[in-house]
Amino acid sequence: MYALHGRNTADCALAYTELFGWKVLPGYRFRRHAGCTCKRRGCRAPGAHPVDESLLQPVEAMKIPEVFNQRPGAGLIALCEGFDAVTMPYELGLSVLLEAEGAGLGVPCLTVPGMAATILVAMRTGQHLARLDSRIRVVERWVALPPTHDVRWESLPSPELALTDAADLTPHLTRAVRLHRPEPVQSALRSSSSAPGEGGS
Ligand SMILES: [Zn+2]
Q: Does a structural domain hold residue 193?
């Protein structure tokens, strides 16, 4: 039985590979107060890029224990292939998740608690969501997975369920965005003393 909630990085890496066919590698980690463990100034993918540039090819299942055990303390990253990872502020992500669950949609969601939420949707559909708000973006290449420090599954993926098409999440995300950034429409209406009550006649 594979456990996605395990603590052993090699075991989890194997689970992601065998259950979902994801391509995984040991990665740098993101630290809340110290940035990416690569320590490069202006790192372009904090906490989600390979630790070993010679390992650009994702690891085959057979070699996973060896590759990960040789790099203790490294994070676990997966290539964004076969899915789109859409990242957004934490509260917004949880809100979308609740809305989607209420509508019977299961959406796998990774979180860095208090900071960010990343939902996994069907391949090449993520832009539907990124278009809705500037705080939302599609992850370009690698995404950090548990048991990487500070990264959790808020909602687990399932090998039996296909990923949701992001277009189906659009109404839920739109509501969540409104909730987390109230539009200044009401105050604009109030400041206009001659707002007509009815339109046209
Ligand atoms: Zn880095």
A: no
Rounded to two decimals, the pTM is 0.86
Query: Looking at the domain assignment, is residue 177 inside a domain?
Result: yes
Total number of domains in the chain: 1
Distance 138 CA to ligand 1 centre (A): 18
CA nearest 138: which of 158, 156, 118, 157?
118
Query: pLDDT per residue over 141-197, tens digit each?
Result: 999 999 999 999 999 999 999 999 999 999 999 999 998 875 565 555 554 444 444
Q: Which domain holds residue 46?
A: 9-182
The CA 44 to ligand 1 mean position distance, Å, reads 7
Residue 142 Cα to ligand 1 midpoint, Å, equals: 12
- Tell how far the Cα of 50 is from the centroid of ligand 1, in angstroms: 9
